[in-house]
Fold these 2 entries.
Entry 1:
Amino acid sequence: MTDILLTQTSIEEALSSYQDPYLNTDLVSFGAVQKIDIQGGKVTVDIHLPYPSEFVKGGTEEILKVMVGNVEGVESVDINIGWEVSAHKSQNTVEAISNVKNIIAVASGKGGVGKSTTSVNLAISLAKDGAKVGLLDADIYGPSQGLLMGVAEGTRPATIDNKWFVPVEAHGVKTMSMAYLTTDDTPMVWRGPMVSGALMQILTQTAWGELDYLIIDMPPGTGDIQLTLSQKFPVAGSVIVTTPQDIALLDAKKGIEMFRKVNIPVLGIIENMSMHICSNCGHAEHIFGENGGQKIADQYDTQLLGSLPLSKFIREQSDAGTPVVVEQENSDVALMYRNLARNVAVALAKRTANDQQIPNISISDD
């Protein structure tokens, strides 16, 4: 009787009733269900997700067990969820960095929008979800990642054969920054070519090892470093950080246009300081404007990856070198960063083959 009632179709229908909150579709339609095995009343389902899911897969498995268990004839259910980060190469035909699957540039059109703080919490969030993550501080003039990651002042990276830098590990992330090679009292009074050369050196001469993601915290603006990165390295995608202010949004548009010109996909917009929540009464106020990030996302046919509040707590933890996703990983703000990180990972995973290839157009006199 059980064999008659239980079919792959009935199990797929049960699985289809669950909408993955990050893929924004059901797992069957997305193609994440790899195998359904029915042995009498025992059902085993193997699912493969395209984004780091170590933190959330347990809860998903329990939800799916209940859904499949409600199918008539099912006596026991085993849900196995695995995940893997695939490599998504740039449109540029430049050589990839060995063992680094994806380079993601985190950029802003102007300074002061919280880009570095966002980069740190994004990198740590991905690592907490099980990914192998590196973080490069590409702001040669004003490196800040050492402070934000809580790396002790004066820390210097080890070297291998006097050729390779060994990245400094902090909070499960491999980090590299010009701050590790200079002192706080040494300003980088360099011209553009020197800056570009320094970026290339620390990027290519760091022994990153195997990475699912290399997050690059870009300097603000659209100058030499941005062009060097886009032309010399296979950037899989970019993320634009902005605030709702009109001037910040204007500069964010310039950043999007720059990445478009060099054929680097914009995965989405992160709106920082979207609102201020009073610590005394809980009143929320959009002091810098409202819905600016969503408007830009709509204008450029991309997505709003997440909105983050203007928070004293974020600032205090950043200054202390204990990012909020480390210090209070279950707080509301930390969970915002964690969700944002999964949205970034999924936006990259959803890139189709057409997105990754640019047609070769030749022009002749014929």
Entry 2:
Amino acid sequence: MIGQRLKLSRAAAGLSLRDLEAKIGNLVTAQAIGKYERNEAMPGSRVLIALADALDVSVDYLLADQELVLDGVEFRKKAITSRREEAQVVAKVIHLLERYLLVEQLLDLPSVQWDRPREAPYPVRAVDEADRAARSVRQAWGLGLDPIPNLMELLEERGIKVLSIELDNIDGMTARVGRAGKQALPVILVNARDWRERQRFTLAHELGHMVLDIAPGVDEEKASHRFAGAFLMPAETLWSEIGKHRTSISLGELLRLKELFGASFQAITYRCRDLGIFPEALFRNLFKVYSERGWRSPPFREPGAVAAERPSRFERLCYRALAEGAISESKVAELLGVSVHELNQRMEAPIAGTTAPALA
């Protein structure tokens, strides 16, 4: 029955029942579509094809069995986020994950298992204890104290599915992907519109939510923020670069630190205050400058802002599946959300320095 997939596809497209009725040229009523979603009726072939076209999915997709369920969904969001927007994001995530897991299945690859650090979840009874947890994760994963060049790749190597979608009022999301008879997989979603440094902080923040056991009464968001700063900017490395006590700093020096750690001016400033490097007066003066220059407001474009990272493992697997004859060109194009012509261009003449679109 198509009910669950039809409802998810409609939610992912951000359409109401009446919107979808109009988009298929009023072939059937909104009430009839509601019955399809509740599995109380089955559309005929003409209506089924029209629904698939309107929702930009294949008929095979609508007819396939629904296996994935998202559990433990948590959003990093703005106050104006609506339930409809949240439902739309969840539906998009399920769509993307189904594509991702399909390609792994075609290549007979098991999903990378979540490499949860052995001692996690780490108890946090005060916000500053998140620093110790960040050090422990780095130690468990053999990261040492060096800056992390590509955080998306690191998390995917550790078994976390990383997705990137253009979002309006949501910065990030964590969830667990439930599959029948298989181990649940963690997933982190980031906003494709964000600058690289904001994405990296979101990823580290969401990782904090996954590995911290925060005691009642401790602010969970502040603890996860503290974890993110410590994970991206280990104290020892920051001390060696900037010293342990400063009463002034130039924007030029902050820019060099930003390039080194892949963190925003604001994240660096918070981290330096947390470690006692910056006194409160310097902290406040810097944030006054950031506000005056518009760096604390959308689009948050500080000097040295770098275009967003993109998760690349899924795309690599698609190309591999095509090269090994496990999937057709048209299917790869459908999975990547591009035309066959654009796919051929990518395969035949990749342009140095370009980045393919995120899963969408």
